[in-house]
Amino acid sequence: MADVKIITFNCTGMANSIRRTALFEIFRRLPAQIILTQETHSKPEDEAIWAREWAPRTVDFNSAKNTTSYPRNGVEIFINDPNIKVNTVKKDLEGRILTADVSIHFVDLHLINIYVPVEKNSAKNEIFDSLYPYTISSLPVVMAGDFKVVDQPNIDRLPPGDNAERRKALISLCNFFQLTDAYRDLYRDARTYTRRQGTSHSRLDRFHISREINPSNQLTISSTLSDHDIVVLQIKNIQNTQRGKGIWKNNTKIYDLQSFQN
């Protein structure tokens, strides 16, 4: 298969039409077929307008349904290649999770776009726990977004720190689905950061991928329109998923989710 490039980018808002025009121009020029954005501040009533502005390319939205206050959330999947077909789409009700099964170069992928809240640890754990039903797929998985926690605080944060409690739920999720950090697969202990605030730097924006996916390169592109970098993952080869009988595990965490109970 040909190379596939996927981008994740916390754009810190695109509700302003002038800012959105500038972002869309950047997206169109980016060397990627798929662009996952977070913190877009979109509202349901904006989606038709934004879709027309992005046309003839396609885009899938998940806007926060409760927009009585300023919409802080919003995640989108922008398709930058007319040959990509988007199949099943799922989303939560808070504008934080958006998934899509896509067909690209005769290969199917399960994409997960996530925006984690800037809130206390329990809220972060709650959203990671809620990801289980969105991550279940027979397809190779690419989970990307702004995770608000780092995997290895000693090298993913400057100055180094420790957030073991905050990342525990994410580690459990990745272990359960056998997802790995694409950057660490490529560069092991190399240091890089995707968000800078004063003297504090961290690698909050990442790709977690399933074992069928072989990354060949990952780079960051700085943007004056956000305090987050644009992160580009290049995939060289995707193996067809081979499923044997294996062992079926029942994730009881989903029983506590309101959406499951409904």
What does the model show?
The chain has one domain (4-261): 4-Layer Sandwich (Deoxyribonuclease I, Chain A). The strands form 3 sheets. It has a 6-stranded mixed sheet with strand order 3-4-2-1-15-14. The chain has a 6-stranded mixed sheet with strand order 5-6-7-8-13-10. The protein has a 3-stranded antiparallel sheet with strand order 9-12-11. The protein contains 8 helices and 15 strands. Strand 5 and strand 6 form a beta hairpin. With 262 residues, the protein is α+β, with helices and mostly antiparallel strands. The protein starts with a strand and ends with a helix. The protein is 24% helix and 32% strand.
Shape, per Cα inertia axes:
globular
Radius of gyration: 18 Å
By secondary-structure content and strand pairing, the structural class works out as alpha+beta
Number of helices: 8
Q: Mean pLDDT score, rounded? A: 89
CATH architecture: 4-Layer Sandwich
User: Can you tell me the CATH superfamily?
Assistant: Endonuclease/exonuclease/phosphatase
Oligomer: single chain
CATH top level assignment: Alpha Beta
Alpha carbon gap, first and last residue:
41 Å
Brief summary of the model shown:
By secondary structure, the chain is of the alpha+beta class. It contains eight helices and 15 strands.
List keywords for this structure.
six-stranded mixed sheet; Deoxyribonuclease I, Chain A; alpha+beta; 8 helices; 262 residues
Question: Strands, helices and their partners?
Answer:
Layout: E1 4-10, H1 17-29, E2 34-38, H2 47-54, E3 59-62, E4 75-79, E5 85-91, E6 97-104, E7 107-115, H3 121-130, H4 132-135, E8 141-146, H5 153-156, E9 157-158, H6 164-177, E10 180-181, H7 182-187, E11 195-197, E12 200-202, E13 205-209, E14 213-221, E15 230-238, H8 258-261
Parallel strand pairs: 1-2, 7-8
Antiparallel strand pairs: 1-15, 2-4, 3-4, 5-6, 6-7, 8-13, 9-12, 10-13, 11-12, 14-15
Helix pairs in contact: 3-6
